Amino acid sequence: MSDQPSKPRRRYLRIAAGAVIIGAVAVAFVMRSPSPVGHWNSADDQDRFLTAYDRAFQDLPAPAETLDIRTDYGVVRVYRFDGTGTSTHPLFLLPGRSSATPVWADNLPGLLTIGDVYTVDLLGEPGRSIQERPISGDDDQAAWLDQTLTALPISKVHLVGLSIGGWTAANLALHDDSRIATLTLIDPVQVFADIPWSTAIRALPAAVPWLPKSWRDSFNSYTAGGAEVENVPIADMIEAGMHAYSLKLPQPTRITEDRLAALDVPVLAVIAGRSVMHDAQEAVDTAERALPNGTVQLYPDASHAVSGEYPDRLRDDIAELVDDNNDR
Question: Where is the chain membrane-spanning (predicted)?
């Protein structure tokens, strides 16, 4: 299997795709509205984001079904895509911060050869999910996702999470893994290593919505290994979400090694060697040491935008995990 990145079919595929986690200081500085739930800063801001969302969504295959699922915390947008593969359980994809479902545009064609695929817009993030009640901690984060899976006509899923979606997937597995056949964590944040202070500090100006768009573009390019972000559909959507939406989510708790050791499902951990979201070697070492049933893959030349840089290799690694565990 080659370590060379797949030749990009669309320029936006090299973007970090919303996998942005800002430090607690940035969150405290920016999110100073009295609302207890995530919200759009204005109607015009919402319209701008949804226009960018719809543009980026055009590069996805047509969904077979669009679902709005009621949970205790709000309404969760889920899309189902018909696959051509024979996997017993569907894949369920969790995106990174501010990216929503369109982040998977380059990955879906390959993943659909494994089986049916569901995607979700994370609750409390910019997207078409609507947060209605506060999400106050890790238990709440697990609860809304579990309620979403429970509402679907499926028994289990192969859960796949990118960046903060990786943390969200691991968090659910630690609370209740009864609906999880396998767990794939793609360069997850706050799972195997801490976010560097240099990245958190650099995120500060990007977290301020009234500062120029160029500042947010600069940070998104930084997380994507210096990739071009101007006039790129997914990058435009990410920047619009960062500008338009005020998050009201708790900081994700760093998952400790003893908790990782309690994971009782097969785990694929994909670590980007050039990620700015953690020290890659530390993340690899932690994953190899702590996961009781884990496969750790280091993509040495990948940035945090690994899902767009290496869609074919990622598809093959996920397919192997699914094939090995189709009877779970």
Answer: 12-31
What's the distance, CA 258 to chain centroid? 24
Strands (E), the chain: 39-40, 65-71, 74-81, 91-94, 117-120, 130-131, 157-162, 180-186, 245-246, 267-272, 294-299
Q: Are 127 and 53 in contact (CB under 8 A)?
A: yes
Q: Set out the domains of the chain in order of their start, with CATH numbers.
A: 11-324 (3.40.50.1820)
Q: What CA dihedral angle connects 156, 308, 253 and 289, to 10 degrees?
A: 80
In angstroms, the CA 151 to CA 146 distance is 9
* Cα of 118 vs its chain's centroid, Å: 13
Cβ-count burial of 171 within 10 angstroms (0-12 exposed, 13-18 middle, 19+ buried)?
buried
Give tens-digit pLDDT for 71-103. Answer: 999 999 999 999 999 999 999 999 998 889 999
DSSP state for residue 36 in the 8-state scheme: S
Q: Residue type at 93?
A: L
Give pLDDT tens digits for 37-70: 999 999 999 999 999 999 999 999 999 999 999 9
**CA 179, CA 183: separation in Å to the nearest integer?**
11
> Helices 213-223 & 233-244, crossing angle to 10 degrees?
120
Q: What is the 3-state secondary structure (H, E, C) of 244-285?
A: HEECCCCCCCCCCHHHHCCCCCCEEEEEECCCCCCCHHHHHH
Tell me the pTM.
0.88
Cβ-count burial of 139 within 10 angstroms (0-12 exposed, 13-18 middle, 19+ buried)?
exposed
How far apart, in whole angstroms, are the C-alpha atoms of residue 74 and residue 131?
A: 4
d(CA 54, CA 50): 6
Residue 219 structure tokens: 């940070």
